[in-house]
Amino acid sequence: MIGEFFIPERILTGEGALERISDSLGRFGKKALLVTDRTVCRLPGFGRLTRLLSEEGIGYTVFSGITGEPDDAMIREGVRAYREGDCDFLIAMGGGSPIDAMKAIAVSVSSGRSICRFFGEDIRLPRPPMIAVPTTAGTGSEATRFTVITDTESRAKLLLKGRALLPDLAVVDPSLCSSVPPQITAYTGMDALTHAIEAYTSRLAQPLTDAVCLSAVRRSFRFLARAYEDGSDAEACGELAIAALEAGIAINNASVTLVHGMSRPLGALFHVPHGLSNAMLLPSCLRFALSGAEARFAELARVIGAAEREDRQSGAAEKLIGAVQSLCRRVRIPSPAEYGIDRGAYFAAIDRMTDEALRSGSPANTVRPVTGEEIAAIYRGLW
Ligand code: NAD
User: Is the Cβ atom of 144 under 6 angstroms away from ligand 1?
Assistant: First the structure.
């Protein structure tokens, strides 16, 4: 199989990386649309960004209208802010939501088309320059050519793809994550872990993605619980930020599989945060995929120290699922019922969720072929 590997043109990592963007800001444009949310724009990191822009003589308009995981209505507002502000490039500071929103605003601005119309296309059009500055250690969106936007009309979470969505510069400065509350650390960290395991066991895995997957899985198992239990643990937060970036690079080039396919409809219909819906589904989807990739599951178990070299392959593979389950317990991942989802509404939605999961295309990347009946059975079993 021929592998093709995409990453942003430039990636800055490490504490204080944000300040390093000043050496190239002038090349991006004269006025930035800062895409963010109302929590992040009050954090000290946002002040650091606006100070840098002022020092470099770059103008900016703040658009803090990302009030949750982004939908097409928020994107329209962002496009209006970009045009009214006479901006010529974009910077997103925040979790995956503002970063995904920035990507959608950028392609809508240059195409004049509503973002949901791009569903199913390979988005390649020219668009204004983009800088992504994550403040959660999770989605890896700073390094992906994807954006996930909810269509308010159909209430479906659409996965949009294309090279135009890959930011030009990614700035992974872990000091920006120090204010993340434990519960969000747990959800976003489980998102990164899911990306790394899915990409490692995807049909599209390739040697370069394998390397970043193994590293991201190792880091996530070592540091997620530590960062969850003590948000001031700078080493753990720094390692998790790198794990999230590695995992983003991995899905960018090997894609996601069954977990993400099933997670998007669950998130869209029951307002479950993205990382949490992934975490809820991860053990059952791994159990399903196990027989298609036993050696790969066993390798992951050995990498995290859950299995020994001498363990038989099947036993080692099982140990990976056990380790994922205990990590979920340790960072207090609730079940759908504990999260407050109504049982009747959940069961009534299974056909629709199954349909949307299949239509997204992600389940087809799973090493073991999966049918609609099998997806529906996993949803039922999850309850
Ligand atoms: P998020 O961006 O929605 O943020 C979650 C919460 O954390 C928000 O309330 C936000 O204000 C708060 N927050 C963010 N940074 C903070 C900080 N430093 N301190 C305190 N609070 C902070 O959540 P997320 O999980 O990062 O992103 C989820 C979105 O990303 C979903 O829409 C998902 O579909 C998408 N996603 C995209 C990709 C991709 O490749 N494009 C991959 C995975 C997920």
Answer: yes
